[in-house]
Amino acid sequence: MRVAVLVLVVSVSLTEAARCVPTSSPQCYKNSTKPDEDFICEWDERNPEKSQTHILHIWDTVKNSFRTHVKCSKPAQAYLHLEELGTPSRKTDIWVQTQVGNLTFKYSKPQIIRMKRSAGILNITLDKPTDNKGAIYEIRWRKRDSEWQNTTFETKDSTIKDFHILHLQNRTIYQIQLRRQAILRSHPCKDSLHALWSDWSQMVDVPSEIRRRPVIRCVEKNPENGTRDIHLSWDAPLPEESVGGVKYILKLLDWPCHKTKKKKQTTNQTYNTSITYSEARISIIARNKVGHSPERHIFIPALKHLNYCNSDMPSNIPKADNNTCLEWYKLEDGETRPKTVNSSNNILLKDIKNEVDHFVRHYYFLHIKRNKQYQTVVMCPFYSKQKAPINGPANVNISDITHESAVVHWLSIPVVEQQGFLQHYVIWISGQGNTKFHQVPANKTSFLIKDLHPGVSYTVSISGRTEAGNGPNSTVNFETHSKEMGLSWQDQTILIVCVVALLCTIICSVAARRLKLLPDVPSPVVDVAEFRCPEEQDQRWMIEEVHEFILLLHQDPGKRRENVTPEQSTLLQDFGLVVFEEEDEEDGEGGVSDLSSIKSCCYPNPSYRGQMLQLPEPFHMTDSTSRDNDTESTYRDGLFFETRVLECDTTSL
């Protein structure tokens, strides 16, 4: 009996869970005997519940398949057309199924919540159906302007969101769509359950992941009124990474008293903001549909640290509140901002002076918030207490020594050794029993010493001074030059420059000739003439540019030859000729028997051949005897003439 009761309870529970209700078998009939009249099927409703749905199933026993399913529009009654029954002579099974409620399921189209793509793997996060059940999904994807590929997958009931992993080709743009349907469970109304596919989701472009950090360009305008205007710009990612749009997320830390960064989102590739004189940090990432780029951090340093307080800035703010921010830190070397920076909006400078280390330089900024804009009103170094420097200047040396001057150089005292604000350097110059005193500004590292004496030894001492007093001295000795000693440094400089210029000229000339950088200087076109005396060569070998000529006295053959006086054998200045005399004792007729015996050199006159020249008369010579055996040479109009007078009885020219 217990087993029977248990089976009965389980059966009732399953029936109620499936919402199936019992009915009678359908009765199908015609109202007339007409062959073309349709059938009417009726059955009894045995359950009083409302919202019942009746489905009439028609089964072909020969083909073992359903011919049709008819959803009844009226309660407990259905009209069957002959076309739905098929051949009337064939055996057909008809039954009715009654259910409470709608057992046909159709989900809404899925929504893609998030996509993440990395190394060719696309992770898709989808929303859950309204009943929070698992579902069957169909996904299709393709490259742009190509054929679709598709696959199906199932999700589980136990998850909050639905997930799927899709493998894609790297660095390629894709398009995807999804749809889903309910998963049918087994129960007594199994045959009446229908799950329909949802509509396709909107087609989504899938870009490639952004691999590189944005490259940021920062332009800072001149600081003014406690603020600095900053203009940021950056380049867009690659085209395959920018499909579907790119957003840029900036995080700014420009108010030192707030440790959290302000977050800004923009789709532009530029951003303008204002920051204080203190340090500011900005980070940016580029985000697309499948992820974001690595984060890019930029650091905008504070304005250069001042060595002294600016007198134009107010020294303090009387009240501290949420609109003020005091920032301070230890500045031991005077330049490097430490990693640890203190900030507070509840205290002022006077409150921290007694808390910081003595004799150590600190730096502070005082910022205020005015009209929703941050400004710096004070930036200044400070000491809680001061004393004299620990050490004197280092590397003190003397240069450019002359007989009356010298230049002393040194290195500044490091900030860590100053122990206070350095006011100036004190210089003592001692020599010949006298001491001179000079003060040099703290920002100087050299000093010209004048009015020294030649050949004298001097001692120079230098120390730094703060408001607490002078520090230790640094000393150096030197001796001036004598007046007679060498050249001055100005003369030495000029001499060195001249020597270097000369060497450069020589080197350039040699290099130009070796490398043939300059064209060769053309040689003058001059025919080479060889000058030789008749004794050394035959007359026939002479070249045309060099000639000999003999001036002959023309006489009438019928007349007796007269002796020619030595006066007639003078140089014919007006004709540019040379007269030669020759003794001829053997030839009584006055002819020239041997021209080769004439003692002469070669004289350039190309027009001597075939000429017979007459001696001009008269010749005036005051002393003919003094010219005997004498030779005169003359150069005129490019010709060389020689006159030789020989004493003889008969003269031939």
From TrEMBL:
It comes from Cyprinus carpio carpio. Residues 392-485 form the Fibronectin type-III domain. Keywords: Signal. Pfam families: fn3. The keyword Nucleotide-binding does not apply. InterPro entries: FN3_dom, FN3_sf, Ig-like_fold, IL11/IL27_subunit_beta. It comes from the Eukaryota. Residues 1-17 form the signal peptide. This is Fibronectin type-III domain-containing protein. SMART domains: FN3.
